[in-house]
Amino acid sequence: MKLLRETQDFVSLGNGEMNVVVHLPPVAIPEPQFNCVKMFITVENSLLAREKAVLLGGAAFDGEWSNPVFKVCNIADPEGNHIQLREFLI
């Protein structure tokens, strides 16, 4: 992975379609949808990926955010690790 961006609040590392962001959380930990380290994974269909995560024992969190390029949502694996799914719209 290579350094993609660094600010006072976060560091973003990536290689192609996967990013790891280490950031200061916007709220006190623990909160169910926030974690200091979060993987970003690009998927073709975020709805199907969320459903599969739940079927495999993970969790899907409420909320979806988008911009003109992609939309994102948050899931957790069975161990509670947080993952952001990114679906490109173009």
- Uncertain runs: none
Shape type: globular
Structural class of the helices, strands and pairings?
A: mainly beta
Beta-strand content estimate: over 45%
The end-to-end span amounts to 25 Å
Radius of gyration equals 13 Å
Summarize the amount of helix as a percent range.
10-25%
**On the 0-100 scale, what is the average pLDDT?**
86
Number of DSSP helical runs: 1
Describe the main β-sheet briefly.
8 strands, mixed
Order of helices and strands: EEEEHEEEE
- The counted number of beta strands is 8
Protein topology:
Elements: E1 2-6, E2 10-15, E3 18-23, E4 37-42, H1 46-55, E5 59-60, E6 65-66, E7 70-76, E8 82-88
Parallel strand pairs: 4-8
Antiparallel strand pairs: 1-2, 2-3, 3-4, 5-7, 6-7, 7-8
Provide structural commentary.
- The protein contains one helix and eight strands; from the N terminus they run E-E-E-E-H-E-E-E-E.
- With about 90 residues, it is mostly beta strands.
- Strands 1, 2, 3, 4, 5, 6, 7 and 8 form an eight-stranded mixed sheet that branches.
- The radius of gyration is 13 Å and the shape is globular.
- Helix content is about 10%, strand content about 45%.
- The longest helix has 10 residues, at about 45-55.
- The chain has one helix spanning about 45-55, and strands at about 1-5, 10-15, 20-25, 35-40, 60, 65, 70-75, 80-90.
Produce a short descriptive summary:
The protein has 90 residues and is mostly beta strands.
